[in-house]
Amino acid sequence: MKNGADRLVDVLTAWGVDHVYGLPGDSIDTTVEGIRRQSDKIKFIQVRHEEVGALAAAAEAKLTDKLAVCLSIGGPGAIHMLNGLYDAKMDHAPVLALLGQVESNLLNTGYFQEVNTPQLFEDVAVYNRSVTSVDHLAETVDEAIRTAYEKKGVAVLTIPDDIPQKKLATAFKPTANSFKVQKPVVPMAEVEEAVELMNRAKKPIALFGTGIKHSGEIMQRFVETYKIPFVQTLPAKGFIPDDHPNSLGQVGKLGTKAAYHAMKEADLIVMVGTNYPYTAYLPETGRAKSIQINLEPSHLNKRYPADVAIHGDAGEVVSALLNSGIQASDGQFLASCQKRMATWNSWVEEKKDLKGSPLAPEVLFDQIKKTAPRDAVFAIDVGTATSWSSRYLPVGRDQQYTISAWLGTMGCALPAAIASSQVYPDRQVISINGDGAFAMVMEDFVTAVKYKMPLINIVLNNRKLAFIQYEQQSAGQMNYAIDLADMDYAKFAEAAGGIGYTVTNKQEFAQALKKAYKSKDRPVLINAYVADDAPLPGQIVANEAKGYTKFGTQYLTKKHQLPKLPPIKDIMRHFF
Hints:
- The structure is a single chain.
- It is built from 21 helices and 17 strands.
- It is α/β, with parallel strands linked by helices.
- The strands form three sheets. It has a six-stranded parallel β-sheet with strand order 2-1-3-4-6-5, sandwiched between helices. A six-stranded parallel β-sheet has the order 13-12-14-15-17-16, sandwiched between helices. Strands 8-7-9-10-11 form a five-stranded parallel β-sheet, with helices on both faces.
- Helix 3 runs parallel beside helix 4, helix 8 (216-226) packs parallel to helix 10 and helix 12 runs parallel beside helix 19 (506-516).
């Protein structure tokens, strides 16, 4: 006769779950025991910190669109998981979190490590239940998984530790085989309205978000047929290859000057599968018409007024547009955007030959671009790693790129790399982290060592919170509390059982990277001493210029010298 934990594992495996990230402990041990008994079906990946387990599950779900599972004890372990689960929530990733709890007879007594987890996780979860009987455990797990898929979010189950070990005679049949998320029917009346708007537009532009993930080829055919420039949001980077001739990169502080001006000049913006929040970088309200296509109806009209709002699957709706009499634009606006983008690309190209030590980040990313396998997976952390990668790391059709998009949590890259190595064992995984971000989760480098994951982990070591430096300066504030004590991350990697290299210039980095690609059973860490620059905004806007001026004035007053500035040529290019 099986017990509750056995039935729980049966449900997980029926839904295709073959591994779980977590740490064992007293209030979750009966569930972990069930996983041990069926370890031929489901692998337990032991992390060193519960936050890493949750961040790994979030990244895996974002990369694969499949449910990922993490677990921890109740109380402190559960609290640690919140950050990673919020990352999953905000990036709409299906994740199941299994939380331990004190035994049922001790609930509400203020027992050791007893925390009201259903209340604690109420905001993060689309499904949040406390299991009270073994008779309904398997059924509740099944419902939690369905809900995580249906609502693209986090399902949380709090399980008192006595319940999974109880026996039960009845079996439960999971609903995995019959489950299917229904898509809305394409509304042809709205499609026809959209076609009319597109056929009248003189300066159309497309903004693509993560909703195009499974329809990149259709979107590519759309921009080529209609002769339209396009921008991809950062989490959608690479869904259409970055080197496509119609691409203007990203828009915003981390974007290109070409994208900024195209948005300001457009008379029609086609927003597909996006909830892009930085409205200041969209066309001024009233200047451009807007067609919006989104599978999530609450995102329609949310950031920008829609003239045509279409609730539907991005690929199906755009396919309908292509089959409904859409006429190609005259291509003049596209040509002018391509001319601006060619100028931008020439500026980017100049930077790849920067000399000196410490290493210029532009040179480092150029080396990665040139050497990364065609199916590489890039796990990018928050900070200047994000900034540099957005401009200097083009993503190809068969490559993948993952970040903490909406939460923007530091320390996301290493957990994402661990998840990527787990689900894509035959692909090269490269994580790129700032030294501040890496230090938050570095203990789990040893997790990659333990499971023989040959990921390449690059630490941009500038001994500074460089992106915060830029934020403070652009806000007109003096830099404060941003300097970091130096650490030899290469020696740390070796102490953890991995391979470590320290580099300070282009030649050393190229050699270290070449060696790193050859590692097949151990993770590599490249401790790269880089300049503490942050890339200038694609277009420096008035408020940023005022902030920099205020910062410079304060600096001159306090230090009696001018602050270190980017080359005047770069300032002029990005301002005028």
